[in-house]
């Protein structure tokens, strides 16, 4: 595939931003021939003139560059088509499916359609996460149930169907969050549902073991995505102490997902990879 001609980025030496972190590294066919669904493959609109890449779009693009045929799934057709169009323009293979993962009855048929169009199913990435941002004293039962239906129930239903139809040796990756480990956001539905995703990934790994199907989770910290920038506009001080003086990029999240999807991680299972440069463990920029 042909990589886009990206403009240079001004960085300081202590920020440790490499070609991989900018989506510029050459591909190595790490997913050659793999057929993969990415749920949440689009990205939200933002006021930024040159928005950063979101996690789902970066994962989809990187997987395609590494040789995978990608099913780009999102609730927003325009966002999913934007990702698929970029993949095809780079010489990759992709198609679009539109789905509301909060609709429980839509998930199993969606997996069947994607598997048929892909000619099999070797990988599934679940990059879904919504939040109404309600503090505990403002939380309602309806808001709580909606967040959990998208963030947790959909993951369970995707995995349930995928385990039935996936090829032996396939992989599932769930995008959780550092919010699963701490409550600094005062966002109980999001934090609890993201923690539930990590526990669910272990249950999926247990269920997939007879077919050699692995399941792992990723818990990103602060990431410079459209969603991350919107959050920073609301809370300008949210990431002032991040290590290396910068937030992660969507590409760095994508490379973590690539490792867990590739056969390089063939003995990594039921694991949650915390991707925050050590922030959670006390590594901070003074």
What would your notes on this structure say?
The structure is a single chain. This protein has 286 residues and is an alpha/beta fold. It has one domain: NAD(P)-binding Rossmann-like Domain (Rossmann fold). It has seven helices and nine strands. The strands form two sheets. A seven-stranded parallel sheet has the order 3-2-1-4-5-6-9, with helices on both faces. A two-stranded parallel sheet has the order 7-8. Helix 5 links the parallel strand 5 and strand 6. The longest helix is centred in the middle third of the chain and has 25 residues. It is globular, with a radius of gyration of 18 Å. The termini are far apart.
Summarize the structure.
37% of the residues lie in helices and 14% in strands. It is built from seven helices and nine strands; from the N terminus they run βαβαβαβαβαββαβαβ.
- The helix-and-strand class reads alpha/beta
Poorly predicted segments: none
Radius of gyration: 18 Å
Shape: globular
Number of H/I helices: 7
The first-to-last residue Cα distance is 41 Å
Report the strand count.
9
Percent helix among the residues? 25-40%
- Give the domain tally: 1
- What are the secondary-structure elements, in order, as H or E? EHEHEHEHEHEEHEHE
Strand content: 5-15%
Task: Characterize the biggest β-sheet.
Answer: 7 strands, parallel
Mean pLDDT comes to 93
CATH superfamily: NAD(P)-binding Rossmann-like Domain
CATH architecture: 3-Layer(aba) Sandwich
Examine the coordinates and then state which fold CATH places here, giving the name of the CATH topology. Answer: Rossmann fold
Strand order of the largest sheet: 3-2-1-4-5-6-9
CATH level 1 name: Alpha Beta
């Amino acid at each position: 595939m042909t990589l886009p001609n990206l403009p240079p980025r001004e960085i300081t030496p202590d920020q440790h931003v490499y070609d991989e972190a900018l989506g510029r590294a050459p591909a190595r066919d790490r997913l050659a021939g793999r057929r993969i669904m990415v749920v949440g493959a689009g990205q939200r609109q933002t006021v930024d003139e040159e928005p950063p890449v979101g996690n789902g779009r970066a994962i989809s693009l990187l997987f395609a560059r590494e040789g995978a045929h990608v099913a780009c799934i999102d609730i927003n057709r325009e966002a999913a088509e934007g990702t698929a169009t970029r993949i095809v323009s780079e010489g990759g293979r992709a198609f679009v499916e539109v789905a509301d993962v909060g609709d429980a009855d839509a998930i199993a048929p969606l997996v069947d359609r994607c598997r048929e169009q892909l000619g099999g199913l070797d990988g599934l990435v679940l990059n879904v996460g919504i939040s109404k941002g309600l503090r505990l004293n403002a939380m309602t039962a309806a808001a709580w149930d909606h967040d959990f239906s998208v963030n947790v129930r959909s993951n369970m239903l995707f995995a349930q169907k995928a385990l039935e139809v996936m090829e032996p040796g396939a992989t599932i990756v769930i995008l959780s969050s550092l919010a699963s480990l701490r409550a600094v956001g005062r966002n109980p539905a999001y934090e609890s549902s993201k923690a539930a995703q990590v526990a669910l990934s272990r249950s999926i790994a247990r269920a997939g073991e007879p077919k050699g199907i692995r399941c792992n989770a990723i818990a990103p910290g602060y990431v410079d995505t459209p969603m991350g920038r919107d959050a920073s506009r609301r809370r300008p001080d949210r990431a002032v102490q991040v290590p290396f003086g910068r937030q992660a990029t969507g590409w760095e999240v994508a490379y973590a997902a690539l490792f867990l999807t590739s056969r390089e991680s063939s003995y990594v299972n039921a694991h949650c990879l915390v991707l925050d440069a050590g922030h959670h463990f006390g590594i901070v920029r003074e």
